[in-house]
């Protein structure tokens, strides 16, 4: 019963979002206040209806209602409660429902927050948000219905892919989606601004809280996904330049360019048209990412037929949103005010340079990810564009951004003075140089790219610290920037560290001791253990470094009988300077018939700082949202 | 019903960037010479696991990737150069196996475009400043 109510609520939400898409627009045209205000009511109603639908689905998952197809496919009575909850968004249908939940949530936030926003801007933005909601609710109801029943009901479900039964993965999609979908509000505000005839340049500032909220969440979501890949996939890697990862990185790069350009528009009323365009691009890339992932078109060029209806539907939504917004932009942008003049060497100039590199990197990423598809469509040839390509192109394009991000914020608006800045930074330059030399002593010359990245990371962290010290009496206003920039510096140091990781794959039998560099490991025992819905083999390893005992580590190989598949459960021991990373593999037979286990042992220097740095960056964004909301409260 | 279930499962897998087979992690014994082993890892990172989604054979736990890692180590022991090994596998599996697309007619655009984007954008900026300077 509850599942039908949920289904009905989502159908109602389709209708209310249609009202949200139309009434405020008519109100804005004819200048009827009540119609403009109706958009707010519609936004709240749509949100609560989708919340109801979402919880109805969650209720069926938690109560093991095996008459619901979605529950049958992805749940099991023995599955722990946490994964019954996260199982709601593990399926395609459920994850689209989460997508729309967050979309309508952002619609409600547009209706609720920042009371001083111009009524007409809010009304038009809500209408655009309503259109997107209408499109995606239609997508759910017509192609991906999570509320479908199955007859007769089953006694037991098929359980969830064991890889998804992990807290990191369970909770990273919501963050990722808040990031992805958060750009819808920025897009809606940008479109709303373009729709208004006498839009003021200062209106661009209303985009800021949403852009920053989306950016922070996307940063956090991407970091969480990469952390999961690090400890769950069992290979010590944390970023694979996989199309699905790229799909999340594209809007992040555009969003990063956007928050910088927004800051300039907010402070100096420059780049208004460019900022609006970036707002459109950031959400378009979110939609493109959704399309790539949902249609499954990229991962294998041969399987577009997996479900053409879905792919075509999202593609149509993508074309409508992007095409509509760009047409609107081409029509209305020329009427937007010109930028005030500034010198090339100035804060504005720095932000332009930042945007130049970030957008080029983003375009390269988009093009490289789509290239196999385009080439295949044109002449049927098949190539792969993988990690080596992106490391050779995207990374060098991003390095100048890191090098300049210490200098840019120190430049004055309008006209800056580089000599003065280098005088202020001379200690930072000296200290970074010495630290980088010291780092070479420790890590050696194994990877030149890694060394350059390490030096850049040190430079960004030291430069940010010096900047903090110079402003120690009044740092609150620049705190978001300090956190975001410093956090990126920290993350870069972590990424650079992974270039110097040392990997060993070997085979061991119980009680065997191996010397691996300055480390010694012993496989002390191999036990069988039982989890709630899995069986596991657990290796107990003792690890020494330079004859000093470090830790007992227990990596597992888990097997989930219902799914008939398993996962590796890695053991990681960290002291923040390096991770000792241990994975237990399958059983193998030696030539003489003795049974041995394959073992992977990695020493990953500095790697935990990737995620610590990313969390600091996200905090910077949150801090900025908080400041922009509270500072406006007291004029 | 079952068929669509399989499709949904595949879609879900694609979405969450999951390698399809993770159970069969097996070690190939590393080459005794560290310099050679480093070469083996370097070559492995350039090769796509052709039965997986988009992982290199170093990152894949599929049986085929495992066999290919062993093959690389045997070839290195046999005195082959990195390029010879990559060429050998390319002859068998086509360009698809190379994660770094070769610089050739059908990839000129791919390799030159980042540079092109950068030049185009930088050129536009210069033009803008020039016009501004003249106008203001």
User: Got a strand count of chain B?
Assistant: 0
Structural class of chain B, please?
mainly alpha
Helix content percent band of chain A: 55-70%
Quaternary form: heterodimer
The two chains with the largest interface, and their residue counts, are: A-B, 78 and 56 residues
CATH superfamily of the largest domain in chain B: Cytochrome C biogenesis protein
| Binned strand content of chain A | 5-15%
Instruction: Report the principal-axis shape of chain B.
Output: elongated
Question: How much strand content do the residues of chain B show?
Answer: under 5%
Distance between the termini of chain A: 51 Å
Characterize the biggest β-sheet of chain B.
none
Order of helices and strands of chain A: HHHHHHHHHHHHHHHHEEEEEEEEEEH
Task: Note down, in words, how this protein is organized.
The complex is a heterodimer of chains A (635) and B (136). With 635 residues, chain A is of the alpha+beta class. Among the domains of chain A are: 165 residues, no CATH class; 105 residues. Helix content of chain A is 62%, strand content 12%. In chain A, strands 2, 3, 4, 5, 6 and 7 form a six-stranded antiparallel sheet that branches. Chain A has a four-stranded antiparallel sheet with strand order 1-10-9-8. In chain A, a hairpin with a 2-residue loop joins strand 2 and strand 3. Chain A is globular, with a radius of gyration of 26 Å. About 1% of the residues of chain A have low confidence. Chain B is mostly helical and 136 residues long. Chain B has two domains: 101 residues, Orthogonal Bundle (Helicase, Ruva Protein, domain 3), CATH 1.10.8; 33 residues. Chain B is built from five helices and no strands. In chain B, helix 2 packs across helix 3. The longest helix of chain B is centred in the C-terminal third of the chain and has 28 residues. Chains A and B meet through helix 5, helix 9, helix 12, helix 13 and strand 1 of A and helix 1 and helix 5 of B.
């Amino acid at each position: 019963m509850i599942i039908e109510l949920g289904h009905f609520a989502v159908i109602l939400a389709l209708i209310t979002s249609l009202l949200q898409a139309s009434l405020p627009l008519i109100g804005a045209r004819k200048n009827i206040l009540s119609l403009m205000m109706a958009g707010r009511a519609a936004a709240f109603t749509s949100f609560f209806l989708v919340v109801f639908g979402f919880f109805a689905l969650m209720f069926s998952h938690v109560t093991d209602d095996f008459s619901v197809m979605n529950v049958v496919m992805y749940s099991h009575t023995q599955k722990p409660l946490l994964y019954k909850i996260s199982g709601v968004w593990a399926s395609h249908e459920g994850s689209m429902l989460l997508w729309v939940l967050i979309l309508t949530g952002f619609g409600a936030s547009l209706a609720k927050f920042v009371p001083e926003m111009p009524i007409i801007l809010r009304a038009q933005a809500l209408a655009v948000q309503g259109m997107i909601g209408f499109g995606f609710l239609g997508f759910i109801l017509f192609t991906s219905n999570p509320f479908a029943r199955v007859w007769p009901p089953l006694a037991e479900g098929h359980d969830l892919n064991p890889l998804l039964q992990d807290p990191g993965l369970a909770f990273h999609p919501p963050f990722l989606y808040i990031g992805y979908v958060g750009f819808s509000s920025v897009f809606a505000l940008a479109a709303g601004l373009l729709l208004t005839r006498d839009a003021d340049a200062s209106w661009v500032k209303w985009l800021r809280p949403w852009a920053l909220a989306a950016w922070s969440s996307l940063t956090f979501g991407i970091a969480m996904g990469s952390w999961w890949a690090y400890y769950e996939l069992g290979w010590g890697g944390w970023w694979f330049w996989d199309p699905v990862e790229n799909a999340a990185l594209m809007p992040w790069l555009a969003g990063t360019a956007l928050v910088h350009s927004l800051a300039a528009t907010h402070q100096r009323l420059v780049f208004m048209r460019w900022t609006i365009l970036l707002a459109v691009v950031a959400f378009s890339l979110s939609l493109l990412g959704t399309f790539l992932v949902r249609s499954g078109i990229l991962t294998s060029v041969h399987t577009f037929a997996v479900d053409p209806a879905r792919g075509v539907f999202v593609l149509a939504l993508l074309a409508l949103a992007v095409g509509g917004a760009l047409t609107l932009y081409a029509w209305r942008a020329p009427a937007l005010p010109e930028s005030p003049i500034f010198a090339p060497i100035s804060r504005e100039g720095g932000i332009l340079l930042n945007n130049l590199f970030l957008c080029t990197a983003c375009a390269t990423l988009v093009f490289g990810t789509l290239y196999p598809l385009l080439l295949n469509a044109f002449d049927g040839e098949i190539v792969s564009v993988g990690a080596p390509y992106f490391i050779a192109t995207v990374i060098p394009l991003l390095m100048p951004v890191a090098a300049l991000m210490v200098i840019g914020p120190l430049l004055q608006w309008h006209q800056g003075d580089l000599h003065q800045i280098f005088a202020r930074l001379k200690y930072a330059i000296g200290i970074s140089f010495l630290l980088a030399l010291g780092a070479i002593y420790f890590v050696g010359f194994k990877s030149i790219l890694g060394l350059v990245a390490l030096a850049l990371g040190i430079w960004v962290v030291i430069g940010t610290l010096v900047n903090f010290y110079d402003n120690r009496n009044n740092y609150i206003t620049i705190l978001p920037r300090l956190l975001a920039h410093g956090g990126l510096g920290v993350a870069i140091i972590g990424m650079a560290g992974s270039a110097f990781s040392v990997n060993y794959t070997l085979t061991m039998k119980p009680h065997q001791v191996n010397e691996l560099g300055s480390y010694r490991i012993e496989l002390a025992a191999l036990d069988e253990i039982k989890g709630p819905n899995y069986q596991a083999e657990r290796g107990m390893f003792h690890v020494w470094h330079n004859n000093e005992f470090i830790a007992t580590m227990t990596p597992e190989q888990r097997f989930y009988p219902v799914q008939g598949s398993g996962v590796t459960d890695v053991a990681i021991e960290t002291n923040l300077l390096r991770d000792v990373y241990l994975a237990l593999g399958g059983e193998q037979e030696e030539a003489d018939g003795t049974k041995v286990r394959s073992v992977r042992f990695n020493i990953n220097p500095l790697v935990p700082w990737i995620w610590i740095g990313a969390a600091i960056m996200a905090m910077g964004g949150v801090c900025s949202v908080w400041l922009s909301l509270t500072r406006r409260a007291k004029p | 019903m079952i068929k669509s279930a399989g499709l949904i499962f595949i879609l879900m897998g694609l979405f969450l960037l999951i390698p399809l087979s993770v159970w069969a992690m097996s070690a190939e014994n590393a080459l005794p010479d560290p310099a050679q082993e480093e070469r083996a890892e370097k070559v492995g990172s350039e090769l796509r696991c052709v039965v997986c989604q988009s992982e290199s054979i170093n990152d894949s736990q599929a049986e085929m990737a495992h066999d290919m890692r062993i093959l690389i180590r045997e070839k290195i022991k046999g005195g082959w150069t990195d390029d010879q090994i990559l060429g050998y596998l390319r002859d068998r599996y086509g360009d698809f196996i190379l994660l770094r697309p070769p610089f050739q007619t059908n990839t000129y655009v791919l390799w030159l475009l980042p540079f092109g984007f950068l030049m185009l954008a930088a050129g536009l900026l210069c033009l803008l400043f020039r016009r501004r300077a003249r106008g203001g």
